[in-house]
Amino acid sequence: MHDGVRAWLANAGIELPADPxxxxxxxxxxxxxxxxxxxxxxxxxxxxxxLTGQARSxxxxxxxxxxxxxxxxxxTRLLDRFEEVGLVDDQAFARAWVQSRQxxxxxxxxxxxxxxxxxxxxxxxxxxxxxxxDPDDEVEAARVLVxxxxxxxxxxxxxxxxxxxxxxxxxxxxxAGTCFRVVREELDxxxxxxxxxxxxxx
Length: 202
Fold this sequence. Notes:
This protein is an all-alpha fold and 202 residues long. The chain contains eleven helices and no strands. It has helices at residues 3-11, 30-51, 58-67, 72-84, 90-105, 109-118, 123-130, 135-153, 158-171, 176-189, 195-201.
């Protein structure tokens, strides 16, 4: 009954019984019932946005969710679900990363391992992906890097060229033996005398 009518009757001395309580349980408060569902929806959108056009490791995605304030239990539940359906797969991520970065950037396995570790990929999963790199391909990638750099370093004194080229390869993760071998061979190909380098590092 309208509150105005109830007040008018009360002034007239006529008391009405209170409105009966609705049958069945009270409806759930949407404000108190909503947060978990809302958080999961927000987290799901974050994950899908992050995965659009680019694979990411589980650790990277967990970091994105944490930065957005998604509770840990919600993040874990969704990441587990995404793994179940194959949207999150650290093994596939590691393999794709190696296949892209090894020939594309000329990175050696050691540098690739460090990158995958920074991405939060388990060392064992990373090792499986890195084992797929052919040692000959790794050496050839180093050779390509040296030849590219020689376009601007060929005029340098031998010692300076060796130092710069081996330093460049070392930063790419190549072991010292590979660095000096490839640099020596490429400088020899251009007529540089690198015999003393051979004697010091072989």
